Amino acid sequence: MTRLLAVMMLLLFSSAPVMAGGGLDVFINNLNVQARADMDDFSARVSAQFGVPLSQVQAVIGTVQTPADAFLCFQLGKMAHRPYRDAVQAYHVNRGKGWGVIAKELGIKPGSPEFHALKRGDFSLTGKPGDSAPVKGKGKGKGKGHNK
Q: Is the pTM of this model over 0.85?
């Protein structure tokens, strides 16, 4: 019975797009389970979603601790409008200090919608090109938009 349950859980995690509603840690854990179930599919979807050649995705996966760390390097690079290599470098310099520190190092400001999306784990791995933007939310910034 437990084996059947384990197989069903594995299928559940690997068949649906990874989305998190329980924060960054839940997203990371779910993404790692899915990636380890089929690393080739994970790598291909990261490659397609972020527009990075598969060989470069695999190289990044080889230099970080977990597959989810590789995804977050690509995601934070995209969010910060910086090359993913900058995010990988920030990861290695600040590893163990947390993703918030890495995000700040890349210029993502605390309190910004991007920083809040990071803390909530508002990301998904769909494998669709350009589908890497976090869910937009209202920030607490003091912008000077037209309706201010």
A: no
